[in-house]
Amino acid sequence: MPTFAVSPTQPFHFQRMARRLLQLEKSTYRELNGYVVRTVRLSKEPFLIGFRYDEGGQQLQVDVKGQVTDEQLSEAEQLVRHMFSTDVDLSQFYRHAAEDCHLAPLTNQFAGVRMVRDPDLFECLVKTVISQQLNLAFAGTLTKRLIALAGDTLEAEGKTWRVFPTPEQVAKLRYEQLQQLQFNRRKAEYIIDIARKIVDGALDLDSLLNMADEEVVATLTRVRGVGRWTAECLLLFGMGRPDLLPAADIGLRNAVRRVYKLDRQPTETEVRNIGSAWSPWSSYATFYLWESLG
């Protein structure tokens, strides 16, 4: 069983991050023998990968279940660094937030908590489209159903695990198959059509990595079913861009009202005005405000 360790930039609060994943990302993360585990693809091959944190050594311990090549092991390390934002220096954000009497208490409360990114952009985009105008629980249920319908299975640790489907696997689906799983017709069309655009070469998600934030938003919002909020979530949870402010998000607006002690929910414009002071760390200010909602 190949293992390796990643040394995150401190502070790094894995326990709270793991608790959040197990509570809110039940479609992809589970607990097994003291590890938080999920399936990923390494060189397009599915693997089960587990994470636990060594408090004494301040290292994230990673186990890859199965036989991997040196190339896949190197890919796994880069993937873990991406997923758990291990190289992000949060101390810069904390110094910035210390100047805001409303944000400063949150950085104390959530010190070391990082955004956990999705392992690839297709998974992030599809999960975000699924989440549009849905509560987290039902969005997770629909994600599980999609994975069960279209994804691969993997045998590991005496169990059968599901793997998030590839664009090729989703592109083969019919809209009616998702409707039978309680997806509405439009959302079924959005998801399958996005996959088909990727397979046909009309949409290259990897090319987005080299674009500025607003260029990514402009490119994605030309795709049916993708609005600004969805594009911003991809920038946040797919790429980990540091200065995103999804001001239209209801959860963020509720959090701003609560933390900034406003007498009503602020408008998108008002959130942008308040949030202008968060730059260049708007993403983490947003994330910590979301966390404050519990």
Overview of the molecule:
The chain is of the alpha+beta class. Among the domains are: 3-87, TATA-Binding Protein, CATH 3.30.310.20; 121-239, Endonuclease III, domain 1 (Orthogonal Bundle), CATH 1.10.340.30. The chain contains 14 helices and seven strands. It has helices spanning 14-24, 70-83, 90-97, 104-109, 121-131, 136-150, 167-171, 175-179, 185-200, 213-220, 228-239, 250-259, 268-275, 282-292; strands at residues 3-6, 30-32, 35-42, 45-54, 59-65, 153-156, 159-162. A five-stranded antiparallel β-sheet has the order 1-5-4-3-2. The chain has a two-stranded antiparallel sheet with strand order 6-7. Helix 5 runs antiparallel to helix 9 and helix 5 crosses helix 11 (228-239). The longest helix is centred in the middle third of the chain and has 16 residues, at 185-200. It is globular. The mean pLDDT is 95. GO terms for molecular function: alkylated DNA binding; DNA-3-methyladenine glycosylase activity; DNA-7-methylguanine glycosylase activity; oxidized purine nucleobase lesion DNA N-glycosylase activity. It comes from Novibacillus thermophilus. Pfam families: HhH-GPD, OGG_N. Keywords: DNA damage, DNA repair, Hydrolase. One of its GO terms (biological process) is base-excision repair, AP site formation.
